[in-house]
Design a protein that fits this description.
The chain is of the alpha/beta class. Helix 7 packs parallel to helix 8. The structure holds manganese (II) ion (MN). Manganese (II) ion binds next to loops.
Length: about 500
């Protein structure tokens, strides 16, 4: 490895999936892992196998199917978790075990109820156990930035002695600042005598909006692996954003002089995929991938960009895969052209999915003259969600206006059985939700409801994004249609399907 190459460790599927409401199905996790492979990440942290059977199965599947990158599984520092993590990834072409344990006094005393010596011994024992399974072992002292520096040096030396090949400095709670973090990293390089035998990594959270700044500073001080997520999703305020780190390194190579293996033209597509599957919208002003990131509103700026792009653009939108082309598919377009266009957008559908998507496309093209790429994304989201359904929304009929709002719905279950019911409500969406509840019968509370127009114009496709809560767990649902009541009903059924399909026992602390 050349000394200026930065290892990109993606934890979208582990820390990112810990975002409240971002639960993914196994099929969705595999789809994201395959796209991360195309994006060129070096390491995929696929999950946390000890936390639930669903997580174990997803990591196992990704290890089997995604062969180029290193596939990493996270484990608490206990024998069962390390063994479960290994069992999940042992079939990987390049497996990595990642063991973590808290090192700050605040965690040791209040959460683990142990003392420093016990923690040190446990870390050493679990790294040694992991090393018995595989050569590639990473260790994270959780909450590193609030730990005693001398104690950190001692732990790192000890775990490297028993074979840790990567040591990860974690700003678990997003507390540090760039200069302070840089000094901690410098201390690690100076005070850990065997540090030359391990790669030093960082894992930064964004509670103060400093995750990317802290990560970049650490690279200048000798760190060569950065842990990050697509769109910066993750626990609380999220993790360092992959696209921001990669594009900062690329755009400011004059300053940083580092390279990565990332194919930046896959960034936009990956961002959309992760947003669509997790149900976590990207804020419009988000750096790199936000809808406004390459839009110019001021007349002076527009004039400048038209004359010479670099007047107000530091990056070429094409470098992240934004083509700016609008689709010229219409209602006369055939299935072949449709499939070709989808492949250009990065969607490779099987015949059944293609048939569903094509039918939806034809229906939309009847209502709307020009079908844009954004319409297609919304519509494909619907077509691809069908694979995980316990209930499918067949039809919704509603009436509102000056009468008592009422709705009737027809659902079909996985066995093909038809269910119909009707209800009154405060409005047509509420009436549709009540009617669906009468059939599904699972208690839940609607905690968030958003409708966005995907494109401009009065025939625009509306996309509903909702969150429901049941027993403390949040589930996201999305649905798209030119009728917003139908879109809302689709989103509700989608969220209920996730609720019904969710595995129990998910959760746990992690770096
Ligand atoms: Mn984390």
């Amino acid at each position: 490895m050349s000394d200026n190459k930065i290892i990109i460790f993606d934890t979208t599927l582990r820390d990112g999936e810990q975002s409240p409401g971002a639960t993914l199905t196994m099929k969705e996790k595999l789809e994201i892992a395959q796209q991360l492979d195309k994006l060129g990440v070096d390491v995929i942290e696929a999950g946390f196998p000890a936390t639930s059977p669903g997580d174990f199965e997803a990591v196992h599947l990704i290890a089997e199917k995604v062969r180029r990158p290193i596939i990493c599984a996270l484990a608490h520092a206990n024998p069962e978790a390390v063994d479960a993590a290994w069992n999940a990834i042992k079939g990987a072409a390049h497996p990595r075990l990642h063991v973590f344990l808290s090192s700050s006094d605040i965690h040791i005393a209040h959460q683990l109820r142990k003392d420093r010596d016990e923690i040190l011994n446990l870390a050493v024992a679990m790294v040694a156990r992991a090393k018995g399974y595989t050569e590639d072992v990473e260790f994270s002292p959780m909450d590193t930035t609030r730990s005693d520096a001398a104690y950190i040096y001692q732990i790192l030396k000890s775990v490297i002695d028993v074979g840790a090949t990567t040591v990860n400095i974690a700003d678990t709670v997003g507390y540090t600042t760039p200069q302070e973090f840089g000094e901690l990293i410098e201390g690690v390089f100076k005070k850990v005598p065997n540090i030359g035998r391990a790669l030093v990594s960082v894992h930064c959270h964004n509670d103060l909006g400093l995750a990317v700044a802290n990560s970049l500073e650490s690279l200048r001080r000798g760190v060569r692996q950065v842990e990050c997520t697509i769109n910066g999703i993750g626990e609380r305020a999220g993790n360092a954003s992959l696209e921001e780190i990669v594009m900062a390194l690329q755009t400011r190579r004059d300053f940083f002089a580092f390279t990565t293996n990332i194919d930046t033209t896959q960034i936009y597509k990956t961002s959309r995929l992760v947003s669509r599957l997790t149900g976590m919208p990207v804020q419009p002003n988000k750096a790199i991938v936000g809808a406004n990131a390459f839009r110019h509103e001021s007349g002076i700026h527009q004039d400048g960009v038209l004359k010479e792009r670099s007047t107000y653009e530091i990056m070429d939108p094409r470098s992240i895969g934004l083509t700016g082309s609008t689709l010229s598919l219409g209602k006369l377009s055939g299935r072949h052209a449709f499939r070709n266009h989808l492949q250009e957008l990065g969607y490779y559908l099987n015949d059944e999915e293609l048939a569903t998507a094509f039918k939806a496309f034809k229906e939309l093209a009847d209502k709307k003259k020009e079908v844009t790429d954004r319409d297609l994304e919304a519509l494909l989201g619907d077509a691809l969600r069908n694979g995980i359904e316990t209930f499918h929304l067949e039809r919704v009929h509603y009436s509102g206006g000056h009468t008592m709002p009422t709705a009737s719905v027809k659902l079909v279950d996985a066995q093909g059985k038809t269910w119909e019911d009707a209800a009154l409500g405060d409005g047509p969406v509420d009436a549709a939700y009540q009617a669906i509840n009468r059939i599904v019968g699972t208690p839940n509370e609607l905690v968030e409801f958003n409708i966005n127009s995907v494109t401009e114009g009065k025939e625009a496709v509306g996309e509903a994004m909702i969150r429901i809560e049941s027993e403390g767990q949040v589930y996201t649902g999305r649905g798209a249609d030119t009728d917003i009541v139908v879109a809302s009903a689709k989103a509700y059924v989608n969220a209920l399907n996730r609720l019904l399909g969710a595995q129990k026992g998910k959760g746990g602390q992690s770096p």
